[in-house]
Request: fold
Amino acid sequence: CVTLDVQAACRDPTVTQELLKEGFHRDLLVKVELGEDAGGCAVAAQMRLPPGIYVDPYELATLQQHNLTKAVLFPDAIDVEAPEYLARDLLLLLFLEPEARCSRCFRAAVPVHARYHRPAEGTQEAWVVLESPEVLLCCCHSHLSAECWEPAEVDAPCSSDNTSPCQWHSTKHKPAHEGSMLRVPVGLREHNSLVCALTLLTTGLCTGLILAAACKYGHF
Reply:
């Protein structure tokens, strides 16, 4: 009976995430509704981004300067030009803001970008699976139930404005949330020869025009 009472008292947070806009440049919206009151606590969503999607650290820094988004990115140095097959996973800690009409509700959005994929055979799209984030709490002045929350191994501050490390907590019973799917357009492998031929033809034509203009108008 004690076990059942503890499980009943530990309500898992409700997590929803949505990819807004279309194309390669999207906004990732994360919403969290806590199962218990966490007044005075910092709430964050920790998510692992697969190689097919990334957050631009320069864009993120600009948004944080204007207080539009608060997040910590690991690693903070990212090759934004790398294709999907040469990239690696990223870890994003997104700080959530409380909603005005719901004391247990928090939300935040961050721009994400899809990477180019290898040409595929027989299909014009690839799928990037974005797993549901893990909800974290950092409570400096509040006490969390030991039956529901446990210390999390997260080496990050309580906010993006603070450099001091903080003790984050996560739910002991991680809920099974559904992830999101991002559809990315890809080229067809059977078009490789045609694309290479047109690229060489266009490059040669442009080079010839530049050389002709240089010979006609240039001073040597």
Observations:
- The CA atoms of residues 38 and 144 lie 8 Å apart.
- Residues 1-8 have pLDDT under 50 and may be disordered.
